[in-house]
Amino acid sequence: MPCKDRDQAREYNKKWYRANVKKRITTIRDWKLRQKALLLEVKSKAGCESCRTHDPSKLRFYHRDLVQAAFDLNQAHDDGVSKARILNEIKICGVWCRRCFSTAHPDDPRASGRMSGRTFQARNRELVKALGMSYGKACNRLRRMVLFNVVRLAN
Ligand SMILES: [Zn+2]
Predict the structure, then answer these.
(1) Quick one: 36 and 91 in the same domain?
(2) Domain encompassing residue 128
(3) Ligand 1 midpoint to CA 34 (Å)
(4) How many angstroms is it from 106 CA to the middle of ligand 1?
(5) What is the pLDDT at residue 115?
C-alpha cells in the first residue's frame, strides 16, 4: 500500500503490526532459529581445529584476523544478521572449542583464561590500536562483537 504521507504510512504500519503481532513474532523467532541452526551446522561440520570435537555446544567461531571482523558470529542469530553476511563472515573465521582456543592463543583477549584486570586492559588497548580506530569507536564495535566487556573494565 503506497502512502505519500509519512504519518499516514506510520499509522498504517502501526495498525498492521497490532493486527499481526503474533504472526510477526513467530516469523522473527523462526528466522532466528533458522540462522542459529545454520551456525550450529557449520560449527559441527567443521569441528574444533585442535581437538576435532564436533559437539556444537562446545564450539565457537573466532576471527582469524580481528581487524577484518564485522560482527560476532556467535551472536549473529540474535542480532538479525542476514544469511549472506553470516556466510561471508564464516569465511574469515575459524572454529575452536573454548579450551583449545585459550591453550593455542593464551595472549588473545578472547581466550577465557584468568587474567588480572590490568593485563586484560593492556591487551584491550593493544587490540584497539590494531583496529586503527579511536578508542571510543573501537570500544563500541568490540562491545557489539562481545569480545570483551569494556564497561566492566572501566569499573
Ligand atoms: Zn578443541
Answers:
(1) yes
(2) 114-155
(3) 25
(4) 14
(5) 57
103 C-alpha to ligand 1 centroid (Å): 9
Q: Is residue 61 part of a domain?
A: yes
Asked if residue 55 lies in contact with residue 44, where contact means CB atoms within 8 angstroms, the answer is yes
Pick the closest to residue 110 from 41, 60, 49, 54 (CA basis). 60
Q: Which of 134, 135, 130 is nearest to 153 (CA)?
A: 135
Ion ligand 1 neighbours (CB, 5 A) are 48, 50-51, 97, 100
| Closest to 43 (Cα-Cα) out of 30, 52, 33, 34 | 52
Residue in the structure block whose three cell numbers are 573465521 = 93
| CA 148 / ligand 1 centre spacing (Å) | 21
Q: Is 139 in contact with 152 (CB distance < 8 Å)?
A: no
Is 89 a residue whose pLDDT tops 70? Answer: yes
Q: Which whole number is the average pLDDT over 35-40?
A: 93
Distance from residue 89's CA to the centre of ligand 1 (Å): 21
Number of domains comprising the chain: 2
Mean pLDDT score across all residues of the chain: 81
Residue 30 pLDDT = 93
